[in-house]
Structure formats: C-alpha cells, structure tokens
Design brief:
The protein is an alpha+beta fold. Helix content is 55%, strand content 13%. The strands form 3 sheets. A 4-stranded antiparallel sheet has the order 5-4-7-6, with helices on both faces. The chain has a 3-stranded antiparallel sheet with strand order 2-1-9. Strands 3-8 form a two-stranded antiparallel sheet. α7 crosses α13 and α8 packs across α9. The two termini are 37 Å apart.
C-alpha cells in the first residue's frame, strides 16, 4: 500500500501482516524462524482483495496461472524480507509508540488533503484501520532501523552541491499561490442525476432540460453569494472554503492550492488567477468543474529559484534517497548472510520460476 513517499518506495514491501497463525505449518524458515502457511495465506488474501487483482477475473481461480504464480513469488519474497527486518528490529530493540503512529497517520492525511480523503483512499484499496496501523508501525520501524545502522544526515554542502548540479530543475516558470472555493456545477452530471431520480420516466426531454437549468442557476446563485461574503471579508476565505467548497481536498486546507504554473490549471481558472493582484477576490470563474471563487496569496516570478527558497525541499529529497539506499544495502547484506530454508519446496523461488516457465510453454496445460 502506497499512501505517501516513504522507505517502502525502495521496493521492499514490509507492510505484510503476520497476525495469529491458524495453520502453524512452517513453509519457510529464516534464521530458524518459521514463516507459516497461515501467514502466506493471509498475505495472499490481502493481495487478492486489491482493486488491481480484482480485475484479473478467472486468473485468480487457478493457482498455477501466470498472475497467481507471480503473486506467490512476490509474497514469498516479501515475507522473507519482513522476517529478516523484524529480526533486526528486535535485535536493535526498536519500539514504536501510539503517538508516533498517530503523527505518521496525520502526516499522510495532510499530504492527501484531509482525514476524509485518507479514509476514501483506504476504502478504495480495501485497507482496514488495523492494516493501516500495522503498515505505519512497520514503516516507522524501518525508518528507525535505517537511522540506527546508517548515517543519513545531509550536510549543507551536499544541499549546495545538488543545487549547483541541478540548476535547470530550479529554473521555474511564473507561478502564483492561490486558494479557491469550488461550487461544483456539471450539467451532464446533474442531468444524469435527474434521470436516475425519475424512476418512472415521467419527465420528457424539455422538462429534464428545464430542471438542469434551474439547478445550474441555483449553483451560480450560491457561488455569487459566497463570493460576496469573500469580498466583504477576505481574511475569512479559508473558513468559507471549508464550509462551501466541493473540492474537499483543498477545502481541508482552507482552499489552498499552493504555488502552481499557469499550464497546471484549466484555462479559465489560470487566466483569472494570473490576472489577479495578491489578496484580491476574483469574479465567479466558470470551468468544466463548476464555479470557482479565487483569491491569490502570492506570486513567484519566472526564473531561477534561490537556494534559500528550495534548500528544505532539496534536503528532504536527499535524506530520502540516502534512507532508500541504506535500506537496500542493509537488506542485501542481511539476505546474503541469512539462512533461508524452504520446508515446502513449492515455495522455493526456483520451483515457482519453473512453474511459470512451464505455464508459458504449455499455456493449455498440455
């Protein structure tokens, strides 16, 4: 599960749940520690419930299908990775508090825009609150493990050197920092909702169009009302966004969209935003998304961004790269020295790869 940039982007998915094994039959042993059949089946069940796997249809019914064998290979590797890393976590006596888990959860929610948006993402990916907590715990453990075993600090010189070697990346177009309130108004969507509500089909085309127009007029009236409130009290724009905006992600942050270049937004929106002076409220701007009320908070001229404006961004990026590299090196060393025994030969990588090759050569099982 990927909710935000983290050490998990190193390709080492350590967020598998171990839980209480119902079937304690060992299929693999890592440094003498068993991985049970139940652990594998629980990890597989979790994977099969993802939206991506649900699209595979009948492939999921055949354990020897290409998709299922590839999934088996990946899960076996992930379970081994997790077991090795768990052993290191215990060896280094790493613990995670509830406050740390809450802080990590808030960090992810903030990046997504709101707690509401986080819950939507969890639902879309069939991730329970318990699974999220387990994944966050694993992520924090890995982060602490890396910091305990490697130097991931970034010096001012490293930041400066990166800036000087990648100046093109910091030569940016003109940007504005703006907030908006969206009153969603899509005539096609409104029409569809009216048709679906008219279950007995009593409305004719003309009546439906009239209802659509009335609804669009209602949306515009609301947008004008909200704009009037914003013009009277620009300092309350954030409150109005939280109260009225249909863009729930930005609304959670008071409508804040951050800095963006002109080409990042649809033309009506961009034209209006780039024509406004800071701290002025726009007229109602109509786009395909609906009716926008915009306020510009700041402007950034075209050209090279000075180091002091981007040094925090560079430092965060370099720290992340160091952590990922350190985790990869740590794991490669640990895996090379680990004693991995395949009690059940069918879970051995070579056995899975042979089954995949046989399936490709004999797709009909001939």
């Amino acid at each position: 599960m990927k909710l935000a940039k983290s050490l998990l982007t190193a390709g080492l998915a350590v967020g598998l749940l171990t839980g209480c094994a119902l079937d304690k039959t060992a299929i693999i042993k890592v440094n003498g520690q068993p991985i049970t059949k139940a652990q594998y089946e629980k990890a597989l069940d979790k994977q099969l419930k993802t939206p991506q796997m649900q699209q595979m249809g009948d492939n999921l019914k055949n354990p020897n299908s290409f998709v299922m064998l590839m999934t088996k290979d990946r899960i076996v590797n992930e379970l081994i990775v997790k077991t090795i890393l768990d052993q290191q976590v215990k060896e280094h006596k790493i613990t995670v508090s509830n406050d740390e888990i809450k802080a990590k959860r808030k960090e992810i929610a903030d990046k997504l825009g709101s707690e509401e948006r986080l819950k939507e993402v969890l639902k879309q990916n069939n991730v329970t609150e318990a699974q999220l907590k387990e994944d966050l715990t694993n992520e924090i453990q890995v982060d602490k493990l890396v910091q305990a075993t490697a130097d991931v600090k970034v010096s001012d010189k490293e930041v400066s050197d990166f800036y000087n070697s990648n100046k093109a990346a910091f030569n940016r177009p003109e940007r504005v920092k703006a907030s908006h309130i969206l009153i969603e108004a899509n005539p096609d969507k409104i029409k569809q909702e009216i048709i679906e509500a008219d279950k007995n089909g009593k409305l004719n085309a003309e009546q439906i169009d009239a209802k659509v127009k009335a609804k669009m007029d209602e949306k515009m009236a609301l947008a004008k009302k909200v704009r009037e409130e914003a013009v009277k009290a620009p300092e309350k724009f954030a409150e109005l966004a939280k109260k009225y905006s249909d863009d729930k992600v930005s609304a959670a942050n008071g409508g804040d969209l951050g800095f963006f270049p002109k080409e990042a937004m649809v033309k009506p929106f961009a034209d209006a935003a780039f024509s406004l002076k800071p701290d002025t409220v726009s007229e109602v701007v109509v786009s395909d998304f609906g009716n926008h009320i915009i306020i510009v908070k700041d402007r950034a001229a075209k050209g090279m961004q000075p180091l002091d404006k981007v040094q925090d961004e560079i430092k965060t990026f370099l720290e992340q790269q160091k952590k990922i590299s350190a985790l990869q090196k740590l794991f490669e060393g640990l895996k090379a020295s680990a004693k991995v025994e395949y009690i059940d030969e069918s879970f051995k990588p070579e056995s899975i790869q042979n089954a995949i090759r046989n399936g490709i050569q004999n797709p009909q099982g001939k």
